[in-house]
Amino acid sequence: MSGGIEVRESHPEDGALIEALYPSAFPDEDLLPLVRELLREGPAVLSLVGILDGALTGHVVFTTCGVLGAPDKVALLGPLAVAPARQKQGIGSAMVRAGLQQLQSAGVSRVYVLGDPAYYSRFGFVPDDNVTPPYELPEEWRGAWQSLSLCDDTSPLHGALSVPQPWRKPALWGP
Ligand SMILES: CC(C)(COP(=O)(O)OP(=O)(O)OC[C@H]1O[C@@H](n2cnc3c(N)ncnc32)[C@H](O)[C@@H]1OP(=O)(O)O)[C@@H](O)C(=O)NCCC(=O)NCCS
Question: Which of 10, 21, 41, 59 could covalently link to 47 via disulfide, CB atoms 3.0 to 4.6 Å apart?
């Protein structure tokens, strides 16, 4: 809990509300096929919802991934969505922070994200040139590829991020 915000793992019964959230938060992008596939991935995926005043208003997914050639367990953050009418009330931050804490307890050493640094820098994410995303990013998106260390050893990993099937679609990695 943080203020009136509760963050918890999603249940199958949240499906319809999660499905309604994405088209409103991303009117120009259809992320539902990705979200549906991720929710079918089972324990490899941490799916959290944000509840404000009893209403489901946010959703975030963290996917367990690997870095080829490194033993570390890492995660990919995304998608992240908050209902437009409820944005800027701390729900996105509460979900991200709760997820990072849970992943840290589960021994995940680093989390990657492709997103706006103006938002993700508040959690400590910094641009990452050492681990490459599954598909080459367009030049203008390079600064959006970031990571955050969750362990004491903050030295970067090196290699290519290996993602499960739902993320193996070039369209998810370019405009
Ligand atoms: C991005 C998003 C998840 C943030 O959730 P939220 O609950 O509104 O965020 P919080 O209340 O925790 O944080 C609000 C802060 O984030 C900033 N912010 C929100 N969206 C931002 C964005 N896309 N880029 C940069 N900053 C952003 C707000 O200006 C506000 O800044 P302030 O704290 O300096 O006032 C939400 O705005 C959203 O769903 N947007 C549409 C979908 C999207 O862009 N998802 C992220 C994909 S990378």
Answer: 10
Q: Say if domain 5-168 classifies as CATH 3.40.630.30.
A: yes
Distance 81 CA to ligand 1 centre (A): 9
pLDDT digits (tens, 9 = 90+) for 27-67: 999 999 999 999 999 889 999 999 999 999 999 999 999 99
Q: Both tokens of residue 128?
A: 């990452």
How far is residue 52's CA from residue 153's CA, in Å, rounded to a whole number? 35
**Tokens encoding 31:** 């992320």
Protein residue with least CA distance to atom 48, ligand 1:
115
Q: Which of 105, 25, 29 shows the shortest CA–CA distance to 60?
A: 25
Q: Does the predicted model carry a pTM greater than 0.90?
A: yes
- The verdict on the CB of residue 147 being under 6 Å from ligand 1 is no
H/E element holding 81? strand 73-82
The residue ranges of every structural domain in the chain are 5-168
